[in-house]
Amino acid sequence: MANMVVSACLTHYADVARAFGLDPIAQLQAVQLDPACLERSDFKISVDSVWHLLENSASQAGVEDFGLRMAEQRQLSNLGTLAQVMRQESTLRMALETLQRYLHLHNEGFLILVEERDGIAVIRGEQITHRQLPSRQSVDLMIGVTHRTLKTLLGEQWQPRSVCLRHSAPQDRSTHLRLFGTRVQFNSVVDGIVCRSAELDAPLPGSDPVAARSVRRELEARGAVSETVVDTVRRLVWQLLLTGRLSVEQVAEQLGVDRRTVHRRLLRHGESFSSILDQVRQEQVVRHLRDSRHSHSEIAELLGFSCLSAFSRWFSQRFGCSPRAWRKGHVG
Q1: What is the pTM of this model?
Q2: C-alpha–C-alpha distance, residues 74 and 54, integer Å
Q3: Order of strands across the sheet that contains 192-196
Q4: What are the pLDDT digits (tens) for 17-34?
Q5: CA 16 – CA 213 distance, rounded (Å)
Q6: Nearest one of 134, 136, 140 to 48, comparing CA atoms
Q7: CB 246 within 8 A of CB 234
Q8: How many angstroms separate the CA atoms of 164 and 199, rounded?
Q9: Strand 192-196 to strand 120-127: parallel, antiparallel, or no bridges (unpaired)?
């Protein structure tokens, strides 16, 4: 089933397109998107189509920072009800936890992860992909929006330690420098924003935890309607596998049930925890193999295999060749 995103993700798309002489209506129609989504912010549209739209537009405009230009003028209010809850949370940590929990209501193709070590926090952005797609513009858009969100919550004076992007530096870095300052790093191992862990626990101005709880109930109700248990477990598997903390117990804890209940609910839909894990591994392994910075042993660990030989056996059964042969044939 295709991942969806609300059409609010195209805020400022038409302005940026026209600035480079592009016809935004024609661009949307070329990727089978309804032009009406430029006027309405609540349409559910295909994530894949949006990714193609941004990459096509950047190519035809002859710029490498199209997505980031869209992010530059974004407001937290574009997240609607979710923004209301985030503004009312007591700390940045709680606001990010809310964003992690409910972001799928706006964008099923993107995850926010928070990792901490030695007093440093990395707020990572990860795309959920069913197949390999060009992603430079969509990554820049989402990291740019996340950066704008943090500055809105902490104050415009706030600056991260660094902003990391996996892709190479554009020929013209002026937009990246204008938005992120000199702290931007290209060719990084993650897409994310680095800050001090202490900043996660700083109180947010104007917080109202009671109001946050009230609005959060509305988001819970929307989530219950929009997602099946299979969708929810699949999203959690994606998230937890990327953090190295995946287990059926962890998924059960996130859902507030025991592991037997998870298995029973999935069985009603003809799925199991193992089958969902296998699907997600097949999606993630292609991304990892295309990234030449990861060795096969590292990929095995990232996907939760106990050893390289177990990973190699699994890969050969699913793809009909060894990881080395696949990488040689697809990456060179």
Answers
A1: 0.86
A2: 16
A3: 110-117, 120-127, 192-196, 162-164, 184-185
A4: 999 999 999 999 999 999
A5: 37
A6: 134
A7: no
A8: 18
A9: antiparallel
> Is 37 in contact with 43 (CB distance < 8 Å)?
yes
Amino acid at 147: H
pLDDT given at position 307: 94
38 pairs with which residues across the strands? none
- Bridge-partner residues for 194, per DSSP? 122, 162
Question: Which CATH number does the domain 228-332 belong to among 1.10.10.60, 3.40.50.300, 3.40.1030.10, 1.10.630.10?
Answer: 1.10.10.60
Residues in the chain, pLDDT under 50: none
Q: What is the identity of the amino acid at 31?
A: V
Domain with CATH 1.10.10.60 in the chain: 228-332
Beta bridge partners of 126: 111
Per-residue model confidence (pLDDT) at position 216: 86
Rounded-to-integer distance, Cα 69 and Cα 202, Å: 29
> Considering Cα of 57, then 10, then 185, then 100, what sign does the dihedral take?
negative
pLDDT digits (tens, 9 = 90+) for 123-162: 999 988 766 666 899 999 999 999 999 999 999 999 999 9
Which pair of structure tokens corresponds to residue 207? Answer: 């917080």
Exposed/middle/buried for residue 205 (C-beta within 10 Å: 0-12, 13-18, 19+): exposed
Write a three-state SS string for the chain: CCCEEEHHHHCCHHHHHHHCCCCHHHHHHHCCCCHHHHCCCCCEEEHHHHHHHHHHHHHHHCCCCHHHHHHCCCCHHHHCHHHHHHHHCCEHHHHHHHHHHHHHHCECCEEEEEEEECCEEEEEEEECCCCCCCCHHHHHHHHHHHHHHHHHHHCCCCCCCEEECCCCCCCCCHHHHHHHHHHEECCCCCCEEEEEHHHHCCECCCCCHHHHHHHHHHHHHHHHHHCCHHHHHHHHHHHHHHHCCCCHHHHHHHHCCCHHHHHHHHHHCCCCHHHHHHHHHHHHHHHHHHCCCCCHHHHHHHCCCCCHHHHHHHHHHHHCCCHHHHHHHHCC
Question: Residue 184's beta-bridge partner residues?
Answer: 163
